[in-house]
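Batch job 17 of 40 flagged for manual review because the log was empty.
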Amino acid sequence: MPGEERAGEGRRIGGGAGRDGGAGREGAGGGEEIKVREIMVKEVAFVSVPGTRERLMNLFKEKQISGAPVVKEAESGGEPGKVVGVVTRQDLLKNPSEEQIALLMSRNPVTVSPEATVAEAARILLSNRIRRLPVVRVADRRLVGIVTVADLVRKIAELHCKEPVSNYIGDNDKCVAVWEETPLPVAGRIMELARVKAVPVLNSELELVGLVTDRDLINAAVIEDGTEHSDLSLGADEDKWTWEGMRDTMKLYYGVSKIKLPDRLVREVMVKKVATATRNCEASECAAKMSRNKFDQLPVVSGRAKLTGILHDRDLLRVLLAS
């Protein structure tokens, strides 16, 4: 599933003074220089290579996270080592047969220095359409923390930005919804094609009744074991006595396992208590609602409670870039 959570090219944004580290408009707080080290998570959930999909899925479920940095080697005592990749839930869904983290992850991820400003971090996240930035030491790229869209949204909630969220809803963010009776494999394919991590759920009366996310899909997924085979020819291509279709062959059988979405309906796994916003809601108010409930998007509804759009948390990052 390409798009939003891919790690991008291997670049690091260094420290130095950025513009408007915590600025918003209409009471958002002026040109405060907030550093990444002040808001980053220092106790980082990470995986190392070599490693397996099972380890990764267990980490995602245990920590309730959607992605993690990948390090090449861990320091003695379990401290993270050099960052070599990032792996996400979407990577699991896109590659259901792959078992090795090294082949699931995005290599050479974009990283950030702890001395960068939150405005710089916001620009990187927006321009690369990613959700998390490993924070690394400049000298050796050792992992020292992580900063995510959610961390910046928490900061935006404190800025008292009173602008309506209608100013921040992305022009290119199309609202894709599914019917509550949609089978999970179909919903997963719709989300993959639309490159979204969550979709609102409607009933037959077109009422908003829930939200289904890639986390819900992963939690509902099962690991299906099976056996496949490969035909191995015993003849050589240059052998004039070996004719196409008449070669001696042997079959190599090997076990495989795949992530499979069960034939359940969306309404069975969706989140039913959905927080919403209207287009006139204040930016910081919506940021606080997202942060408090650990949402990364809010369905936007009309005065009659009809779905009209979607507000993604990344849309609010532009508050930090306002002059």
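Reviewer: the log was empty due to a logging misconfiguration, but the result itself is present. Residues 1-31, 225-257 have pLDDT under 50 and may be disordered. Unflagging and moving on to job 18.
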